[in-house]
Design brief:
Helix 4 runs parallel beside helix 5. This protein has two domains: 37 residues; 213 residues, TIM Barrel (Alpha-Beta Barrel). By secondary structure, it is an alpha/beta fold. The chain is globular, with a radius of gyration of 23 Å. Helix 4 links the parallel strand 7 and strand 8. The protein is 37% helix and 23% strand. The longest helix is centred in the first third of the chain and has 35 residues.
């Protein structure tokens, strides 16, 4: 009798279970369709395809972009896209300063573009001395983006040494400016060399072949998706990036007007 009752209950519930299964499958299918439609959109004026569904776009520059007209950069707007930030190369190694840094740093601020400074890390050199080079060169103000450690080439140095030297740079810079630095690298370098030791730092990741988002296992703040963009006021190509968040998230990342 009990078995017969359970069988009758299952028969009664079967249509409802089938409906639930169909609804779940429909939701999964809709999400897959949405994801498949997240293709890059080509912008003739920028000369590249740009990923949709990101609110804040920006560039990164160095001496290779030569003398930049930052007023023209700030004024350029195509549909809903304009340059909402700029990362500017400041230093490299233990002595080098980018010859365009001082001007770019000053003029980007005058044009009203949120700015950030980055250091190109030479893994064969002391992390402490490279941090000193950056600190001597860069005067961060409230409203600037946090300092950036650009580490992407091993130069034959083993992974353990690279991680140790990077940590020296990051610790010194964070102590000096009172804000946690951002790490810039590519997916392969982060996965092979940095790994879990640096997951607490905001990540700016370079990945050019993806059409939806960078293929990285951890959260990220910025995605460099192209190195062949065009912007008014800049000769030649320039790297394009997106910020992973809205304007409120972006403001939270900026250097505050008081110590953290």
């Amino acid at each position: 009798m009990a078995k017969k009752k359970r069988k009758e209950e299952y028969t009664y519930l079967r249509p409802a279970l089938m409906i639930i299964a169909i609804l779940v499958a429909a939701v999964v299918l809709i999400e897959r369709i949405k994801e498949s439609r997240k293709k890059f959109i080509h912008y003739e004026e920028f000369g590249i395809e740009i990923p949709p569904y990101y609110e804040i776009h920006g560039i990164d520059v160095s001496r290779y972009q030569q003398r930049i007209n930052w007023e023209m950069v700030a004024a350029m707007k195509v549909k809903n896209i304009r340059m909402g930030f700029a990362f500017i190369k400041a230093t490299e190694g233990i002595k080098n300063v980018d010859p365009q840094f001082k001007r770019n740093w000053r003029e980007a601020a005058r044009a009203g573009i949120p700015r950030g400074a980055y250091h190109f890390f030479i893994t064969s050199k002391s992390g402490r001395e490279q941090a000193e080079n950056f600190i001597r060169t860069v005067d961060l103000k409230p409203g600037d983006l946090p300092p950036v450690l650009d580490v992407e080439v091993s130069y034959g140095v083993n992974a353990e040494t690279i991680r140790k030297r990077c940590k020296e740079w990051l610790d010194m810079v964070e102590e000096h400016y009172g804000v946690k630095p951002i790490i810039y690298t590519n997916v392969d370098f982060y996965t092979r060399i940095l790994k879990d030791d640096f997951d607490e730092y905001p990540l700016w990741i370079a990945h050019y072949l993806e059409k939806h988002r960078p293929r990285i296992y951890r959260d990220w703040s910025f995605w460099q998706h192209s190195e062949t963009g065009k912007v008014n006021g800049i000769k030649g190509n320039v790297d394009f990036n997106v910020f992973n968040g809205d304007s409120a998230d972006f403001r939270k990342l900026l250097v505050p007007s008081f110590p953290r």
